[in-house]
Amino acid sequence: MELIKEKQQISPAYDPWDPIRSLRAYGRHVLTSVEMTVAQMCNMRCEHCAVGHTLMMSEPPKLPLSLMLKRLDEVEHLETLSITGGEPMFHLKTVTDYIVPILKYASDRGIRTQINSNLTFDIGRYELVAPYLDVMHISFNYTCMEDFHAVGFTHTSHEVKSGAASRLYERMIDNTKRLNEAGMYISAESMINYRTHSKLSEIHQLIVEMGCQRHEVHPMYPSSFAENLPVLPLSDLRQSIHRLLDTRHRDVWMLFGTLPFFACNTDEEDQKLLQRLRSEPMVTLRNDPDGRNRLNVNLFSGDVFVTDFADIPAFGSIYESRLDDIFNSWLQDHPLSRTVDCHCPAAACCGPNLLVADMYYKGADFKTRTALLPALAK
Questions:
Q1: Where is the Radical SAM core domain (predicted)?
Q2: Model pTM?
């Protein structure tokens, strides 16, 4: 393993999770990002959770850390690692025996790292990972404790009293403020859905007040717990984004991802929104990494998925294969990969992911379409 100490600072000009970077560098999609599911338990059951059906009340043993590190060593172009769950910080032993060693490994290789957490546990757990972590990613879709209570415990097997929810909400906010003040880079993600689309400006204000350096915004798509929730029309999605852009703090990085609007769309309103997004300062559009430059590894089974949403069956195992080989097999052999493998250099666009294509563009062949905004691509 070659040790690389220097790291470029993550910024709107440098987002190492965006697959457009490796596509430009290598002329094709290559595996640069690995996501690991290290937890199948969570202290919350959010109504929109994209992995909700995989959550458990107890966990089986995880595979040996040495095997995971061996497979990471074999990835030729590895640039980023993401740690997800469930709630990765649920068990202190997972933090000490898996997460911290993985982060140390990544730090030694100069690899950027992210943890997806709800930040509701004792701050000491987060202080353990702070020296080695690049991005702490949290979900924040609330304007008040009542929102948190209503959204965060929809699928619990027992009633969660408002007092208990309030304590978690206050700890989450306090942890976020304290960790930000201590120098941790915290990126708060909000989903545009039937609950939040008219409240994004208020949510953004709270995120800024907590000190977060970045606000991510993604539409909600029907996966797992969210599969039966109301779906917003595209017109409501557009309006909510415009309102947010009107009221945002212009010195805070806003990252929009998995938007169902593309430079090859002929709809005039889509084009107006894209033009605005591409011309606003401190605003970026991230192409979806899943299946483009990222795989997910389940650290309990060793199964490899194209996304942690688990809607697509596993197509490999780290017990049997190298991750680069599994990724190349996905690109070359899997029929679903060929349905979303378009790339438009003029628009810096990798096209829709599987969820977006299925939800809004059934039957559309993006490889036959042409971008209408080439001059504004960035």
A1: 26-255
A2: 0.94
